[in-house]
Amino acid sequence: MFSKTCEYAIRAVMFIAQKTRDGSRVSVKEVAKGIDSPEYFIAKILQELGRKGLLQSAKGPSGGFYLDHHTLNQSLADIVRAVDGDKIFSGCGLGLKQCSESRPCPIHRQFKAIRSQLMELLEQSRIGSFSRELEAELTFLRR
Fold first, then answer.
1. Is 117 part of any domain?
2. Structural contact between residues 18 and 135, judged by C-beta atoms closer than 8 angstroms
3. In whole angstroms, what separates CA 36 from the centre of its chain?
4. 111 in a domain, yes or no?
5. Residue 13 DSSP SS3
6. Per the domain annotation, does 47 fall within a domain?
7. pTM
């Protein structure tokens, strides 16, 4: 459903949110290990998310990535839009360009309902809300 880049971005941001609750920062290496992702790939993703304001970074010996109050309150939909765009919220389930209300594809109506539910779920899911469950190991981010 999401691109591989988007999946890694979501997992990385959740990991960073959990690990930096105490004000600390995490390195690319820590994030890559924590979510079981290639370090080079995750470095590019984190750099782009930082440019788009979805996470913070600091350079230097005590540097790394972290989330502030503002970024913790962003939604998962914000990450999806930043990485994959909004096609998942408005595109055709079969990938047809001409699919519309007046000229629907065979799954248009059903997919429209699913798209709407997915958008609502991702809009309501705040980045900072997953930290407690991750900390208690009720949920996980590694493959």
1. no
2. yes
3. 15
4. no
5. helix
6. yes
7. 0.88
**HSE (CB half, 13 Å, CA atoms) of 116?**
6
Token digits of residue 135: 């900390």
Query: The CATH number of the domain where 34 resides is what?
Result: 1.10.10.10
State how far the Cα of 100 lies from the Cα of 113, in Å rounded to an integer: 14
Q: Domain for residue 91, yes or no?
A: no
Domain count, the chain: 1
pLDDT, one tens digit for every residue, the chain (143 residues):
799 999 999 999 999 999 998 889 999 999 999 999 999 999 999 999 999 999 999 988 888 999 998 888 999 999 999 999 998 898 899 989 899 999 999 999 999 999 999 999 999 999 888 877 777 777 887 76
**Residue 78 structural domain:** 4-85+126-135
